[in-house]
Here is the input.
Amino acid sequence: MTLLPVTLAAAAAAAILNIWLMMRVGRVRNAEKVFVGDDGNENVIRRMRAHSNFIESAPFVLILIAAIELTGKGDQWLAYVAALYILGRIAHGFGMDGGSFGKGRMIGTIVTMLTLLGLAVVAVLIGARVM
Here is the structure.
């Protein structure tokens, strides 16, 4: 059996991050008394979008990490990329609240896009046997 330690750690971190984002949505729903949908409430919308944005990218990142790790081409850099992605998504979550760390949204977005692009390029290079 092949163990994929980077993939396992990244998936575990992503699961914990997903729970954290879900709890943040739940807290703001409770505070704002919005229990279904968003009711046009900006705070609820911001938290829901932070969670949705994570869900939109996490599967692609995790699949690419696993595929690269399976090829044996991930070396140490893959763990750093996975950690950077998770940190970027945390920054995005806080940034979506606005306020003093509003730039976290942009940081998280850029980190996510670069992570996806970088992993995709590596996957193509591996598939083309260039790497």
About this structure: The chain has a mean pLDDT of 96. Residues 49 and 96 are 8 Å apart (CA to CA). The chain is about 80% helix and 0% strand.
